[in-house]
């Protein structure tokens, strides 16, 4: 197989987010997470349910619909913890608080974004990971301008009702995979994508980031995985538009 691209490392990293989840609804937001969820379903996570984000359950091959998912049933999956969503983030802080609503003071924002939407329910009721296609100081900030997705510090402050199902498995970016497996539940680098240095990640992050001296690289996709990505799941190469080489 030809050289693995950065986008393909990101696909594999996103796929790994659903490893071990069992029979849950995978809700990927973005091209690379979608390709990753399909790759997971085709390889090590056959029990995953895939959705188009609206009303259909999708098969592993493009264009194949397996069933209908009524909105009421979708909400019951969310509230019951049977979904693992990978959302985007306009801002993320060291504790995992996410902002997709506005930039600046929410009373008079400089820029209006998507709005809070379902982020609080997602983060408190089921596992929520994040996908950031451009790792930068604009996204990784010391303090988010508005909390939409709930981070570990705010969940802890709210008490057991908030922490019972709260979990942020990982944050995947075009530079690295990050998680919160630290004593104080603050962000650290789990792996660097091949070709990326720890210094690059530090310079692109707006707060002090825990990076071990022996931090590993994100795993290589197997030949079989590359064939699935390139020939079955994303033959048009849309992943490369989201994460250019």
Automatic annotation (TrEMBL):
Coiled coil, from the record: none
Any Pfam family matching the protein: CoA_trans
InterPro entries named in the record: CoA_trans_fam_I, NagB/RpiA_transferase-like
Highest taxon of source: Bacteria
Family: Belongs to the 3-oxoacid CoA-transferase subunit B family.
Protein name: CoA-transferase subunit beta
Organism the protein comes from: Streptomyces milbemycinicus
């Amino acid at each position: 197989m030809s050289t693995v691209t950065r986008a393909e490392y990101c696909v594999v990293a996103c796929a790994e987010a659903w490893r071990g989840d069992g029979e849950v609804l995978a809700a990927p937001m973005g091209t690379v997470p979608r390709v990753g969820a399909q790759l997971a379903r085709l390889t090590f996570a056959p029990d995953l349910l895939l959705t188009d984000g609206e009303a259909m359950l999708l098969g592993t091959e493009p264009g194949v619909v397996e069933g209908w998912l009524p909105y009421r049933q979708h909400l019951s999956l969310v509230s019951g913890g049977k979904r693992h969503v990978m959302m985007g983030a306009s801002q993320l802080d060291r504790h995992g608080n996410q902002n997709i609503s506005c930039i600046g003071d929410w009373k008079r924002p400089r820029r209006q974004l998507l709005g809070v939407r379902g982020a609080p329910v997602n983060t408190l009721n089921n596992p929520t990971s994040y996908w950031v296609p451009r790792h930068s100081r604009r996204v990784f900030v010391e303090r988010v301008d508005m909390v939409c997705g709930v981070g570990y510090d705010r969940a802890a402050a709210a008490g057991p009702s908030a922490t019972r199902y709260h979990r942020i498995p990982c944050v995947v970016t075009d530079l690295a995979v990050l998680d919160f497996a630290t004593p104080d539940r603050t962000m650290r680098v789990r792996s660097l994508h091949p070709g990326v240095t720890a210094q690059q990640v530090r310079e692109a992050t707006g707060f002090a980031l825990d990076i071990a001296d022996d931090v590993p690289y994100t795993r290589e996709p197997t030949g079989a995985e590359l064939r699935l990505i390139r020939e079955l799941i994303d033959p048009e190469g849309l992943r490369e538009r989201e994460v250019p080489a």
